[in-house]
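## Example record

The block below lists the input lines for one assembly entry, exactly as stored, with component labels intact.
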Amino acid sequence: MKKRKLPALLGAGLLALSLALSACGGGGNNNTGGGEGDGDQTLTVWTWDPAFNIYAMQEAEKVYQKDHADFKLDITEVPWDDLQAKLTTIAQSGSYKDLPDIFLMQNNAFQKNVINYPDLVASLKDSGVDFSQFPDSVKAYSTIDGQNYGVPFDAGTAITALRTDVLEEAGYTIDDFTDITWSKYIEQGKDILAKTKKPILSGQAGSSDLIMMMLQSAGGSLFDKEGNPTITDNAKLDAAVATYKELVDSGVLVEVNSWDEYVGTFVNGSVAGTVNGIWISGTIQTATDQEGKWKITDLPKLDGVDGATNYSANGGSSWAISSTGDYKLASDFLKSTFAGSTELYDTILPKAGAVAYWTPAGDSKVYAEPQKFFGDQPIYQMVVGYGKDVPVNNTGVYYYEARDAVSAALTKIIQGTDAKSALAEAQSTVEFAMK
Amino acid sequence: MSPERRRNLTGWGFLIPAAALIAVMSFWPMIEAFILSLKTGRGLRLNFADPLWYNYARLWQDETFKLTLGNTFIYLIIQVPIMLVLALILANLLNNPTLRFKGFWRTAIFLPCAVSLVSYSLVFRTLFATDGFINDMLQGLHLIDQPVNWLGQTGTARFVIILGLIWRWTGYNMVFYLAALQNIDHSSIEAAKVDGAGAFKTFWYVTVPQLKPMILLTAIMSTNGTLQLFDESWNLTKGGPAYTTMTMSHYLYELSFQKNPNVGYGSAISYVILILVAVLAFVQMKVGDKRD
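Predicted structure tokens for the full assembly:
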């Protein structure tokens, strides 16, 4: 037995040593910053939504492969919330080498991530992308100090989609909902509700998406130019909140609790319309039994508000190149696909409803094609048209804080709290978060 | 080297790997987090705060933190006692030697805690959706006319979270009690019966006192777990409506990862949670353990 002791002791010691060493491993990180490319023709990509973003990336890969036979993409599906958490974790720990070459970022998060972490995203100054071919309102999200950091991709341009058969039943057409104000919308919505028992709008309780769309449509924002929150004494926001409350109180808008329920309301036909980014068109079309019964138009505008328009956006995202990515290859890839290939957009548009922000794509025949599902409207051409008139949205660095504070205020307002005090509370919440 | 000494060394040799791992993986990050909690700034632009305890002072003005603290304590005060009493009752029922299909009952009650936290939260969310199974069932039984908006109202949303917690953790604690019941000398229970004590009296005066150390352990573990509650808040309600179901851990996750990363402040919150757990565990020890 004696003989066994020493080896055991040695073994245990070695084990301890190796564990301690491996636990401290990964410390030596050599941040090359703006990778030079190592002759390797593969790019790694992080993005979410297989039916939309990943599909678009795969098609872009095919387009680029025509001139670059060895080119390959390695795409990982990462939901946005996780992607944001990953970016934060990587940046906080300084292990930038774990970043992919290209990742998709929500437009509303660009200011925050680029300003908080200057070493996270590469500037597209030398990428050769012609940014004059993208609308200003869209570029603004990913422009920091005059530099572009993102290639706009997913259009969040907002639409009103309505069930024409339900409208007809109450004696309306889509034209009655085009270029109108919210008060007119509510008036007609009440009438339709009385005649057909169907609300024409649904939304997630506690989500401020619709409020934010209203706000942006009038060129409003939750921040001023200096980045201070302007949730109180904000006439545009007050009008949006009052409109929202009226929508709920009148029953024209029915509130549900989750995204799935929201989608369910119009897919199963209990609600006769929706207002959202154009990307919702893909979801609407899953209700194959309703083919030909939908039409789209622009947004109602706020009443009595300076600068109110019928155009807005919800969400949207842009491609970013990471600081450690293969800049040369990645920028050339993006330049020749998402910012330079009508062929790509012609492919992905009918399949995914991926409307391009890249204006030249809007001139292609595919965009002008009538969509059978939407009563033969050329909806994609229409949306590209709307996109040009969307007012610039000043997101600021604290966009998500402000949005969530307004969501909480909205919940309270719908439950009966007076709007002024609820918004004042939201303002102080955001001010506190910024301290 | 004497055999004695060699034996000692061998023992230490076996201890070192685990000790090193715990030190590197647990204690070192804890110290780092404490240092971090003394810093302010967003993202990487961190500086030592002035005064050093700035983040801790800031907590007192943070209405959202107070709300999440309150929420967490509501879960703690309501859910933990209900769960432990239930677990105790179930354990006693299952301990009955004449009970048939004992293995089946035990497995069935313990099974929920083999389910992943995320998936059970999502299942509960689906069950309690406005057009979900629970509402359909209650309407089918004519107990309600209108669907209840379970997750859209503060009270009912908290109720759903508490219900979920009870469903998932009762069986877990029951197993601890069952194990402890195995160690109780059956003759003490026999003696009580001979002396004419009824079932309840036997349970209350004979069984429970002998289970005291285990009850203390489960109480401390449950308190610890509830104060650190995250998954249910995140997956079931997303903290809504208007932050009224959000737990402290969910709030600190949001501060550190979802929003503008205020990691210093987030670390301060995690230290407050640690202190709360320590204080409550200490109180429970003092109250529950009369052996000193």
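The longest strand of chain B covers residues 39-40. The domain at 63-288 of chain B is CATH 1.10.3720.10 (MetI-like fold).
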